[in-house]
Design goal:
- The structure is a single chain.
- By secondary structure, the chain is α/β, with parallel strands linked by helices.
- The chain has a single domain, classed as Glutaredoxin (3-Layer(aba) Sandwich).
- The protein is built from five helices and six strands, in the order βαβαβαβαββα.
- Strands 1-4-3-2-5-6 form a six-stranded mixed β-sheet, sandwiched between helices.
- The longest helix has 18 residues.
- The chain is globular.
- It starts with 12 loop residues before the first strand and ends with a helix.
Amino acid sequence: MKANSSHANNNVHFRGQEGLTQLLEKHEGDVIYLDFWASWCGPCRKSFPWMNEMQNKYQQQGFTIISINLDAEYDLAMAFLKEHPASFSVVYDPKGITAREYKVKGMPTSYLISRDGQIKKAHTGFFTKKTSIYEDEIKQLLTKEVRSN
């Protein structure tokens, strides 16, 4: 599967497939970490501080995080974000259209997308003991992509 790309605007909220498409087009040429989450997801609560750290650490190298919330109720997503602020863009998709398109199997699910829009890695779940592996995958893709340009 191919995806288009994006750089995140702090706490900017978009809606639905059009919102995701706009972000992917805006960040075309970046390495993207696309994350699907929901307010009821325990591991999602642990992933947000890490994603904020990665966004801040690698943004200047052409890396961005786009998260897609799948809560049916917008207020649940907003309550989660109030408790766990995001320094990256959030797309609200209550009908789960993008989740079906990306074949999301669990929460959270993340995809690491290269600068040419190809999905290179996929992870279901978030495990704090694996954050160094996740970060290495990001660094390798950023480094590889820079060298090939």
